[in-house]
Amino acid sequence: MVDKKTKSWAGCPVRFGMSQFGDKWSFLIIRDLMFKGRKYYHEFMEAGEGISTNVLATRLADLEANGIISKAKDPKKGSRYIYTLTQKGIELMPMMLAMMDWAEKYDDATEVPREFIEKLRSDPAKLQQELLDKLS
Fold first, then answer.
1. Over the range 123-133, which residues count as b (16 or more CB within 10 Å of their CB) and which as e?
2. Cβ-contact 57, 45 below 8 angstroms
3. CATH topology of domain 1-88
4. What does the alpha-carbon distance between residue 48 and residue 110 come to, in Å, rounded to a whole number?
5. Which one of 25, 50, 56, 85 has the lowest number of neighbouring Cβ atoms within 10 Å?
6. Residue 65: which of 7, 6, 10, 18 has the closest Cα?
7. Residue ranges per domain, the chain?
8. Which among 136, 135, 91, 16 is positioned nearest to 8, based on CA atoms?
9. Rounded Cα–Cα distance for residues 108 and 12 (Å)
10. 128, pLDDT greater than 90
11. What is the tens place of the pLDDT at every residue in 83-100?
């Protein structure tokens, strides 16, 4: 079933993609889940990006509603939630890696470690598999 929001954005791949995850905060949350091992609300808050609590809560809810992340009660501490990437979210990895590669070329102040970029450029499939293994 296609909801009204998705239907209004369907047709153009770029427009659809941006409707699913298209702001800087959503990309940073995906980055933190995918590459930095963050999975709790407080970890996103402490990431140093300066996101406000209301924006974080909204973006997490949007990403969950769009099926990019899932939210589950923490079995160890029931008062908090664990956020994880869904298969739909994991499938954003090639795009995220391409964005990192592109940024490293054009951003003199990039924070992407040289070793990471070298792995990405020499054997992207191997790097992607290593990252996927860490998400499992």
1. eeeebbeebee
2. no
3. Arc Repressor Mutant, subunit A (1.10.10)
4. 16
5. 50
6. 6
7. 1-88, 92-136
8. 16
9. 32
10. yes
11. 999 999 999 999 999 999
